[in-house]
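U., I forgot to send this yesterday:
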Amino acid sequence: MFKLTFLGTSAGMPTKYRNVTSLAVQPGLSRDWWMVDCGEATQHRLQHVPLTVHELAGICITHVHGDHTYGLPGLLASAAMGARKRPLVLIAPRAVRLWLDATFEHTALALPFPLVHVEVDGGQQSYEEAGLSITWHRLSHRVPSVGFRFAAEKSRWKLDTEALRARGVTPGPGWGELQAGRNVQLDDGTLLLASQFRKAQVERAAIVVGGDNDAPQLLADACKGAQLLVHEGTYTEAISQKVGPGPTHSSVQQVAQFAAQAGVPNLILTHFSPRYDSADGMKELEAEARQSYAGQLFLARDLASYELHTDGLVHKLEAAR
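Result:
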């Protein structure tokens, strides 16, 4: 029900292989998609994936730091030049909107579409649209930071095939008519009512995407019933201790231990320090995570996509070129 495409996975600054933070979230309910954070050059990454700014429903910003926001003005300007008219939702701290307003003023940028700002530091705690609920949860960082929970609900009709076979109705065109909600008359004149042979089946799924955060346990409530946690894994525990409390980031060990305790079946780590840009560096992070977490584990790569299936498991797709 969810597809995630990582547009950037580096912390602080880009590297040769990783751009700074941005994530595309597709709830699978329509062609609409959401973006979480928008680091510098995010719009360049969009050129490599089958996503467009015209189908972008909204942008969620976890916090004001530049590696999560500096791509916003350029992305919005490109959307304007592409003649977008549809309103765009911006779920973000008030500081982000103030910075954007100043940028618009001093660069003479006028958007031809409404930018609907929902403040994460205001009284509102959720955003709702058909089949999708987005809630935000306060985290611990040098500046105010939040994590987002995306909960999707999709209803579909399921045909009661056992009841049909019990009535002696074998598979055929009539099954398709009933599935579509149309009554079917049999050769003997019997009328089969679609309402009696199909039932609504509701599929639900939830994912949690954390912002920068040195206390993963703050997402305990958000992770209840969620099938996937996406969280920063900036450092190993040893480097985190060496760096000290100043950066206020989570170590891989912290996140893995929390995910195990919370019972989240899938974990994707992202937002890696550039010091781990080599294959050996990533193996070091993975090994630390595996010491505490036995579920489905992935270390995100730029332009890689991951799908959360109805079986509750995440499957990695081939990276875009």
